[in-house]
Write a structure and sequence with these properties.
mainly alpha; HTH_TetR; HTH-type_TetR-like_transc_reg
Length: 203
């Protein structure tokens, strides 16, 4: 079996190979039926190699979720464009992010099969991916304050409020939608989210 490096950027691609393997396992059978032995076999490494980097499967899945959620969020943010203020980019990115999260295969699998994995990050504490998302929002809000497109305010509080809002839409939207009714389907509620964010952020 091929050795895997764990420290710094030198181990990045190898770590990604392990995260890819755990993603494939979770998509196939869910988290509870996945074992470190399954991941090691799929990644082509030994179990002891995994234990040197991740003490248990939950930690490994946590790193996977962080990687996947940050990738979704960064892809959702539109690139700067002439004539487009920062507020528009924030709103567009958050709405697109909610839609992308809800369609993400890993997110759907966890919500459908292992939803208890998400509960600590909803009820008890912030996770690494939430901290990273807050960092992205904080940077964007500061840009919006500087160009005048975002209502002045306490940046960190605004970022946390935005994350609370989009997190609730991401996790709970399907409890409120009626996909057979165009006035109450997902697209209609995402339109309401857009209005909510625009009014919250407009100076």
């Amino acid at each position: 079996m091929t050795p895997i490096r764990h420290n710094g950027s030198d181990g990045g691609s190898d770590n990604d190979a392990v995260l890819d393997a755990v993603r494939d396992c979770v998509l196939a059978v869910g988290v509870r039926r996945t074992t470190l032995a399954d991941v090691a076999r799929r990644a082509g490494v030994s179990r002891m190699t995994l234990y040197r980097r991740w003490p248990d499967l939950r930690t490994l899945v946590g790193d996977l979720m962080t990687r996947e959620w940050i990738a979704v969020a960064t892809r959702a943010i539109p690139d700067p464009a002439p004539g487009t203020g920062t507020r528009t980019r924030i709103v567009d990115g958050l709405v697109a992010g909610v839609e992308a999260f809800r369609a993400h295969p890993l997110f759907r699998k966890i919500v459908d099969v292992d939803p208890e994995l998400l509960l600590p990050y909803v009820l008890d504490r912030r996770g690494a991916s939430q901290e990273a998302l807050l960092g992205l929002l904080d940077d964007a809000l500061r840009e919006g304050h500087a160009d005048g497109s975002v209502r002045p305010g306490h940046t960190e509080r605004q970022a946390r409020t935005l994350l609370l809002t989009v997190q609730s839409f991401t996790l709970s939207l399907r409890t409120m939608t009626d996909e057979d009714d165009p006035e109450l389907d997902s697209a209609a509620f995402l339109g309401e989210l857009r209005t909510l964010l625009e009014r919250t952020l407009t100076p």
